[in-house]
Amino acid sequence: MLAWTIYITFFGVLVLMLLPRDNARAARIVALLTAIAGCVAAFAGAIQQPHPGEVATITKLDWIPAIGAHYYLAADGISLVLVVLTGLAAVSGILFSWNIEKRTKEFFAFFLALIGGVYGVFLSFDVLLLFVFYELTIIPKYFLIARWGSTRKEYGAMKLAIYSFVGSHLVLIGLIAAWVVARGQLGHASLDLMELSKVAFPVAFQYWVFPLVFVGFAILAGMWPFHTWAPTGHVAAPTAGSMLLAGVVMKLGAYGCLRVAMVMFPEGVKMWQGEIACLAVAGIVYGAGVALVQKDFKFVIGYSSVSHMGFVLLGLATLNTIGFDGAVLQMFSHGIIAGLLFAVVGRMVYDRTHTRDFNDLETMQLGKLLPFAGVTFVIAGIASMGLPGFSGFVAEMQVLMGAWAVFPKLTILSGIGILVGVVYTLRAVQNGFYSDAPPRPADPDHPLEPITRPERFGAVMLIGASLVIGLFPGLLMNWIEPCFTSPLSMFGRLLVKGVSQ
Amino acid sequence: MNPVNYLQILQLAAPETIVTLTVLVVLGADLTLLRGKSIAARFNAGALLAVLGCASAAVFAFTRQAGQMEFNLFSGMLVVGQSSDFVKVALLVLTIFTILISTSGKFTDHVGEYLSLILLGTLGLMFLVSAEDLLMIFIALELASLSLYILTAFNKHNAKSSEAALKYFLFGGMSAAFLLFGFSLLYGISGSTNLPEIARGLSGKGTDPLLIVAMVTTVIGFGFKVAAVPLHLWAPDAYEGAPTPSAAFIGAGSKVASFYILAKIFTLGFVGAEGSAVWHGYVAGWTPAVAIVAALSMVLGNLTAIVQSSVKRLLAYSAIAHAGYMLLGVLGNTPTSSSALMFYVITYALTVIGAFGVVTVVEAATGGDAIANFAGLSRRAPGLSLCLLVFLLSLGGIPPLAGFIGKFFLFSAAVGAEKNLGLLWLVILAIAMSAVSFYYYLRVLKAAYVQDAAEAAPAIKVPGLTLFALALLAALVILFGCAPGLLTQYL
Q: Is B158 among the domain residues?
């Protein structure tokens, strides 16, 4: 069932390519139906999986026997969480791009191609296959931003593409080296992740190859100081583009760090654990600090993404189950919340007012003109700050608990990041929607278009998801937790024993 | 020596014979039957004949290569075996595609001569692939090169074409002299012109200074053929000035054969003189020389390609860079790395013909090959630009296209060739440079997909045959990327 998420999505791309050029309505409907079908397949497949703690094989076929590559799709609880997230992000992204009029068909074709690649990464258990899907996402990202974006779109798109490409090439170097070493140990060529996760690579080898692969993936996760593509890319992207970038693409990076870099090189992680944690906390604090002083509404959200992704990396660096649980949950939570924030800023505000400058927005009284946008942003802001009741709280709480056991000082520092987060979110709420600056006379010729129905659907869906997980985190934790605690877990080598759980 | 059996020679050289006959038929038909017809008609009829000839030669070679044992005539003058036959098939297929993309050309009215020169070039390359003797290698190489020089000069309306040909010819003549010099030294040291004999003659002599000179001049001679730094200077001019299909032929078929024979000379002829290019483990021999050339080509080719505004020149510098990657396959010096090398070269050649095919069409429609001429291509010719997307992304090494899987084969074979990941430094350089290359391919695609064409630019009409050939090439690039086993089983 889960594999159908990939096939359905790419089939949708094909259908879109064959549609007549000028029929925007048909393109939207095809795209939406495809995304919904993919989302349903993701949910259905996830619910059907009886033991989320184990890796359930979906398909395993020989692909290139000479190098030991398989077409190997499988899923464990972590894949399930992220596949479901991708389904939600795809549907909401399309709802929030309902107003795309320029080359609609191509837009949705690239959009779905990106989504298909993302599903593929989350379900691949062959390293080469994973890498193929991972790189497959770069091209659609580039075109989505360069063609349909705004502020400095070509620059932002190229920067993102190059960062992604450099990152994936670091990964490639590491993978090739690891493939050769593993072949020596196993006696046969293998790219099977399950097999590679049992190979004991020499410690000296892990010492240099782990940072290579980890950083290669972490670039896309927005790890400080390699995060600079993120704010510019997010700002340049069209609304659905930033929703996907923050919502799922950054997760690709974090997922790669966990599933490939850390699983394959556990000794390497242990050697570099402290450095990763430091960079993660630097990202949390730096992202929050920079978000505090932005004049452009979208940059605030862009930097806040860097800050929130820092928690994911911090959780990964803890090497204990509670930190890992928090990291994976934070991937889901941030995917939903950041998507929502970008939807409000990009679609609800910028597409109507054509400005994101706080100085302009202050005089517009958007809270009164667009009450739905105002309320949505407040809710999303509350979720983003990590207030109880929303998914962000459960996730960041667990990350901090996990980190406290290992890096108490850094944990306190990252607490500062959370405080600053509260401040920049409140500032954005106030400046963006509920400012008390003297209002500018409204322009009667260009009244703001009311919030449309697709936007309402999308917003309610995302808020609902965050709320449900915030109130019943067990829904996802039942999938995530067994992955780390089960005795058969592929992450078993990673966990540092003797840390209080 | 056995008595000469002419029937056997004819049998073994049958593909070459078919191509030779095709040359004569094409020339004859163009001189007699097709006289006075329009250029397009002559091109179509001539191309049909040429394609038929090549196809039958290819089918012949392909059907006999399965399960064939190796025949060696006149101590290495003509060696026919499975691998050489498959490379010949690849060469013939590449020639067919080159001819198909030339049919819409308007650069010459000497259609028969043009087509027969392409076929003669192919013939030279086919003999080259079958040779294991220095003399034969040199003769075959010259037959191919002379055809290529003329093909470069074929556009008489364009002064750049003549300039490019002259440059190509002068460089070629000089490198041929180097090659001959090296060969004569080899003969002097080892007492034979046959590659395995040379290896036997060299064994136990250590690294003689004369041998080093011979190796370096051989590297120079072939470095020219494959356009590796520092002998690459002719390439950008030749690619830019030559009629585009000729450039495709230089970049594709000639490269496949040159790399095949280059690997053969080094791995068969210089056994025992490998030396070592391992990081911190340098030993004099041919591998360090090749490693230096490879590193320089990758760096210079990729960095220079960034600033090009002409797509043909960009492809030329990218060809230099790719030659650098391919040399890694020679360096690996294992069966795995040679089959990885051949996979890479063949898929690269298919891709390059495709890319030049797109350039041919765009050039004909817009009058230039600058990146700006590609603006709005996705709207003006959606099918064509989709093909371009496939070709350039494959060159850039994006999965699941053939270029990516080829790089993976090549790099993993090179890393696995030496103990303790000795060649990893070179592979790291190659991968870093391939990340750079992505930028300039993306620049062309940006023009095609992101920028808008000038106002009211009409749709580009792509000739049906060309579009068919390009779509087929794109399909092959995707197919070999997704299922490389289809090709690797023969290599």
A: yes
